[in-house]
Structure to design on (1054 residues):
């Protein structure tokens, strides 16, 4: 019988009532008396020297209140990178300043070099156009292609960086010679060069920010589309604007999707604050969709060569990769961590392989900044591995299921120290592989293939066995690796006098459903109704200092902090109960919402204890503070390691090259499950995005750095008709060993595991259909690319 | 969007008069024009709405075949043309999404003549007549290349007359992002012969594939075009498909349209 409440129940998402009925409150929904409108003046060229900014053109235009240029922010700090990465030779990465508004040069199409504030949006828009028309920007050759960027030293995104390289990273550098030797002497080496396509995040809600300044107190307020309000406050206040943290409130209200792109601090947030102070009026800015395409931090964009060394039976001996990772024109906050410690550390996958070496050269180009996007580095690692393994199987005439099965780590090998630095705590990769084979009826494939053939379609099946590291992250470990922040989280549990609860959490929900799931956990632990628990998030004035939501960390890290705060509540409740029940504290047990004296029928309900804490007439005031509110910070001991096995089946239309995903099976191990329905939804969304990357989405700049896929006319998002009904299972559970809930995280899994399963299935279909010369097609595996490959 | 004046005449005569204003622009369903104005890429001073003119709306049989008022939305054609011209109704039902189909009109589509629009293929394959406030234009004379038509300045399409074929079908292959036709082929069989019109593929806009028409007029079967090839040199090549790919689609989709027509 499925549970109907608490941990493990598919409680309906309480936030959906407002989201689905148009009653959410997003940043752009807020109207503030006296508000003004900001419009950014953006570069139409990818690379250019700013000769003059035509601010005078806006003077005297109707409604114009202020104009800002890069000059106005020359003295304030730059937007920093969150991780310092050292190159192989030990030198620190090149870290050019990222200004609020471009100063001196513009470095990508959409780079803002001025901003106008006006009484109305249209007036600001008119003035911005006038400034753009009157500005003189001397166009420079654009640096677009990564290989050319590194080779052509005369053409520099940042004048002070001669080879356009941010860093040349080796992981683990000490293993390089050993890996080289292993590959040299291996009986077989499979090589694959591939592109992990650049993606535009496309959150449904564009970025938006409202700045307010209160002259009476000198306080600032920033309402913004953020996945992590405290991190944004830290960046804006301490690094960029020089505002004391305690004078800046950051509110991230309802946020309509982020996928990583709203982790980062963007210049518009600083701009609206500076303008609000100057005008002493609220200043609002909302991105148009075109601005989202041009200026949201993009994802992926790796060009990789991977080598897989094995014996003739397919036992893995070594992996070696060389990657060019595009960082775009500036370092976005986590852009240096994504291609390194979120990518290289996963390059041994779920496999026992003794030798792994990863080289990543991160390259500046005149394109939008690239940063973490759902999965962030782990999809790139998984794609490289799972594609080269399939290619190796084909070269050696081996079965891809059996090759994976014999190379997977076995349950008795945990905890497992990987050759690329991670300690996998637990897992059972055979179990998820067995499960997905059963779900997909692998044995019945030939029959389905014949049925497809009868319809004139080629059918193929693709497998991917994947692992990720999430629940980021142990602060001491990431500190050693270059992180400039800690990655703990925090929660405050406030039991109100009437027994209901307000729980303030550092995690931020921008669609995930925390308000539902966190309430389930509280309700389960305290034996109170879910409806009596309110989850508060997204406001630095109301919540403890947490690091927000990304990297599938909310439940594993913030959920654990909340769990620990609940432990403190229960511990204090026992003290109160012991007093009220005239029993020894050690004799008090807590369960089913009651504090009881063991072995008796004497008990106090949770509500009675809460009331007593706030109306302490019969209370041990001499030894115990009144009130019932506890905070806990939690810094994880390790990453968590969700893993799974995915099977995709496709049909390919030989006439048009169109790929239809006809079945998709997921067997995931997320550890313990708090809300199955929400987990399924997360997997659906992740796999949908993965199918989007595999089949539809790509981001292309022309040789001048103009974004060719700058709208939905050319940027192909997956639609309902492009995805199948998913078959999702999470019954294989090896609970995380180092957090009390035993949870691992499920937010990114689908986007990590699915792209190689799709591409493997397409190649399988083409191979079975006689197109044996096709061993790889870069994503997106679009109709045109498939047809062209078949007919090459 | 820049400011503009808006007029909504109730008759063709008033619309023609309104179009005499400097910088006047006819507005039908607005599915191209409004987004273009929002992007500030077009800034007409006067928008002359054609959707309030009852004589330009509706679907009915009449002299020469099926008459469709130029301001008739796609959804109405999809719902009402099926009984006499199922292939045309199916084409209309496949344009865009429900919102586009309830606003976008056949006249707007033809006046714009987007090279990836669906309707031009039906008009050309049907040998339809484009009726304006001034004259009747044969389909073969109407389409003059991408976004270019035989319409003169200020000339308004009032209706389109489709001769009813014995058999017909439209098969399109969607551009993955916009879901316009990357290539679409409309095949229509008339007593006088078969007409094949292709949209989306050619750099010259919608065109008739003469070799296929000849082959299919002799033998209306998909196999009849097996030996034909399509010259890729005049095709559109872009992010979503090479010239060779589009040339291939022309042939593949023509075969499928013939099969679908039965």
């Amino acid at each position: 019988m499925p549970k109907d409440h608490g941990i493990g129940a598919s409680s309906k998402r309480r936030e959906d009532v407002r989201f689905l009925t148009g009653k959410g409150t997003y940043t752009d929904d807020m109207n503030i008396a006296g508000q003004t409108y900001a419009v950014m003046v953006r570069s139409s060229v990818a690379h250019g020297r700013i000769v003059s900014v035509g601010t005078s053109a806006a003077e005297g235009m109707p409604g114009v209140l202020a104009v800002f240029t890069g000059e106005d922010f020359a003295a304030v700090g730059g937007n920093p990178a969150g991780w310092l990465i050292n190159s192989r030779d030990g030198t620190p990465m090149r870290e050019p300043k990222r200004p609020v508004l471009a100063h001196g040069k513009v470095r990508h199409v959409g780079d803002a070099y001025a901003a106008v504030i006006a009484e109305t949006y249209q007036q600001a828009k008119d003035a911005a156009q006038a400034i753009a028309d009157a500005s003189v920007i001397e166009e420079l050759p654009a640096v677009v292609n990564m290989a050319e960027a590194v080779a052509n030293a005369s053409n520099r995104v940042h004048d002070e960086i001669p080879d356009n390289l941010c860093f040349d990273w080796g992981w683990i550098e000490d293993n390089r010679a050993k890996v080289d030797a292993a590959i040299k002497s291996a009986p077989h080496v499979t090589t694959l060069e591939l592109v992990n396509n650049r993606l535009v995040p496309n959150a449904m809600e564009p970025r938006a920010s409202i700045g307010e300044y209160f002259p009476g107190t000198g306080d600032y307020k920033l309402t913004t589309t953020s996945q992590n309000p405290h991190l944004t406050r830290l960046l804006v206040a301490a690094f960029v604007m020089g505002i004391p943290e305690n004078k800046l409130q950051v509110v991230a209200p309802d946020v309509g999707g982020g996928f990583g792109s709203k982790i980062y601090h963007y210049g518009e947030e600083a701009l609206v604050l500076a303008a609000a102070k100057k005008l002493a009026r609220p200043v609002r800015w909302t991105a148009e969709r075109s601005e989202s395409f041009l200026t949201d931090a993009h994802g992926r964009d790796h060009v990789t060569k991977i080598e897989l060394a094995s014996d003739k039976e397919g036992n893995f001996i070594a992996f070696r990769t060389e990657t060019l990772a595009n960082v775009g024109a500036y370092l976005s906050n986590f852009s240096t961590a994504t291609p390194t410690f979120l990518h290289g550390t996963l390059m041994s996958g779920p496999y026992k392989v003794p030798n792994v070496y990863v080289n990543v050269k991160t390259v500046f180009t005149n394109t939008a900044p690239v940063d973490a996007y759902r999965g962030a580095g782990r999809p790139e690692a998984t794609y490289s591995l799972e594609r080269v393994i399939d290619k190796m199987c084909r070269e050696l005439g081996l079965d891809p299921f059996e090759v994976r099965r014999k190379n997977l780590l076995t349950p008795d090998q945990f905890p497992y120290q990987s050759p690329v630095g991670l300690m996998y705590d637990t897992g059972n990769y055979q179990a998820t592989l067995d499960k997905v084979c059963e779900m997909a009826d692998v044995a019945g494939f030939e029959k389905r293939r014949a049925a497809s053939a009868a319809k004139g379609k080629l059918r193929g099946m693709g497998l991917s066995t994947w692992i990720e590291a999430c629940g980021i992250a142990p602060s001491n470990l990431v500190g050693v690796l270059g992180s400039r922040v800690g990655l703990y989280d925090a929660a405050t549990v406030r039991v109100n006098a009437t027994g209901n609860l307000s729980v303030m959490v550092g995690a931020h929900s921008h669609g995930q459903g925390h308000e539902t799931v966190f309430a389930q956990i509280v309700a389960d632990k305290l034996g109170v109704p879910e409806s009596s628990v309110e989850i508060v998030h997204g406001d630095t004035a109301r919540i403890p200092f947490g690091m927000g939501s990304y990297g599938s960390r909310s439940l594993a890290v913030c959920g654990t902090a909340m769990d620990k705060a609940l432990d403190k509540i229960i511990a204090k409740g026992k003290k109160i109960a012991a007093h009220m029940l005239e029993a020894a504290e050690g004799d008090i047990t807590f369960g089913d919402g009651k504090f009881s004296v063991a072995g008796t029928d004497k008990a106090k309900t949770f509500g009675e204890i809460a009331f007593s804490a706030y109306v302490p007439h019969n209370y041990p005031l001499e030894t115990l503070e009144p009130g019932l509110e506890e905070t806990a910070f939690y810094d994880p001991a390790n990453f968590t390691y969700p893993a799974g096995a995915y099977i995709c089946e496709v049909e390919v239309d030989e006439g048009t090259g169109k790929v239809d995903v006809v079945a998709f099976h997921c067997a995931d191990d997320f550890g313990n499950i708090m809300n199955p329905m929400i987990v399924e939804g997360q997997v659906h969304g992740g796999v949908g995005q993965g199918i989007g990357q595999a089949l539809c989405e790509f981001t292309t700049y022309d040789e001048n750095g103009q974004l060719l896929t700058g709208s939905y006319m050319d940027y192909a998002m997956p639609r309902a008709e492009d995805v199948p009904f998913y078959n999702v299972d999470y019954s294989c559970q090896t609970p995380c060993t180092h957090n009390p809930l035993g949870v691992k995280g499920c937010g990114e899994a689908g986007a990590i595991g699915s792209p190689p399963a799709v591409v493997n299935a397409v190649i399988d279909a083409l191979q079975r259909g006689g197109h044996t010369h096709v061993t790889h097609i870069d994503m997106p595996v679009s109709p045109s690319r498939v047809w062209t490959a078949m007919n090459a | 969007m820049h400011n503009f004046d808006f007029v909504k005449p109730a008759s063709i005569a008033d619309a023609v008069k309104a179009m005499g204003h400097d910088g006047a622009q006819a507005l039908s369903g607005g599915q191209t024009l409004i987004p273009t104005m929002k992007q500030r890429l077009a800034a007409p001073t006067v928008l002359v709405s054609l959707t309030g003119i009852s004589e330009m709306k509706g679907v009915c049989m009449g002299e020469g075949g099926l008459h469709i008022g130029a301001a008739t939305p796609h959804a109405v054609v999809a719902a009402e043309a099926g009984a006499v011209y199922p292939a045309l109704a199916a084409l209309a039902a496949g344009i865009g999404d429900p919102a586009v189909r309830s606003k976008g009109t056949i006249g707007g589509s033809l006046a714009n003549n987007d090279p990836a629009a669906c309707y031009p293929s039906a008009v050309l394959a049907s040998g339809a007549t484009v009726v304006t406030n001034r004259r009747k234009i044969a389909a073969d004379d109407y389409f003059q290349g991408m976004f270019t038509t035989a319409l003169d300045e200020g000339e308004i399409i009032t209706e389109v007359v489709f001769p009813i074929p014995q058999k017909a079908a439209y098969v399109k292959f969607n551009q993955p992002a916009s879901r316009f036709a990357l290539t679409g082929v409309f095949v229509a069989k008339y007593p006088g012969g078969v007409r094949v019109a292709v949209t989306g593929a050619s750099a010259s806009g919608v065109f008739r594939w003469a070799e296929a028409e000849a082959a299919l007029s002799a033998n209306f079967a998909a196999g009849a075009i097996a030996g034909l090839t399509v010259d890729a040199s005049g095709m559109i090549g872009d992010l979503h498909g090479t010239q060779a790919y589009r040339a291939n689609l022309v042939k593949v989709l023509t075969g499928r349209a013939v099969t679908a027509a039965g």
Remarks:
- Residues 115 and 262 of chain B are 27 Å apart (CA to CA).
- Residues 5-49 of chain B form a domain with the Uridine Diphospho-n-acetylenolpyruvylglucosamine Reductase; domain 2 fold (CATH 3.30.43.10).
- Chain B touches chain A at residues 1, 39-40, 173, 176-178, 182, 239-242, 244-245, 248-249, 252-253, 256 (CB under 8 Å).
- Chain B has a mean pLDDT of 97.
